[in-house]
Amino acid sequence: DTKMIYHFKKHCPDIDIFGVNCYRGPKGFGTLWKEVLRSLGKPVLITEYGGAQGNGYNQESQSRYHEAAWRDIWRNRAGSGAGNAIGGMAFEWIDEWWKAGDPARQALPGTTGKQGVGSAHWAQEYCGITSQGDGKSSPFMRRLRKVYFMYQKLWNKPEE
Q1: pLDDT, tens digit, for every residue of 83-120?
Q2: Is the distance from CB of 21 to CB of 1 less than 8 angstroms?
Q3: Are 112 and 100 spatial neighbours (Cβ–Cβ below 8 Å)?
């Protein structure tokens, strides 16, 4: 996520915002905020975080991962922490049934897709904040996951 930051500083000095897809682990973004502040002096927009590391098949893990990431963004907003966090976009809103290779059905944990896609991709089929339902009535049968209600609580009372 910041491996090439020196290239941005050298070749793109006029950028206004540093946007990055970031998956640093279940405790937030670590030193990201300070790295960008020290190197570029710019605000940071997390353009993608969450899901793939803490997939919805394990709703508790998914919810904890998203909560830690969102709280880290909140702690580093203007006037707090590093002060350069301007927001983040959660990955993914709806399960991605096509990731393991068969868009007609959701892959079972640990299975390999029909198009030779590795078994690790089954997890991304379950990373949505909402599920695809049972597939028979989609898009009308979404099921809200635990992570949805966690966000609902945080957005209403972020300091708790």
Answers
A1: 999 999 998 888 887 777 777 777 776 665 555 444 55
A2: yes
A3: yes
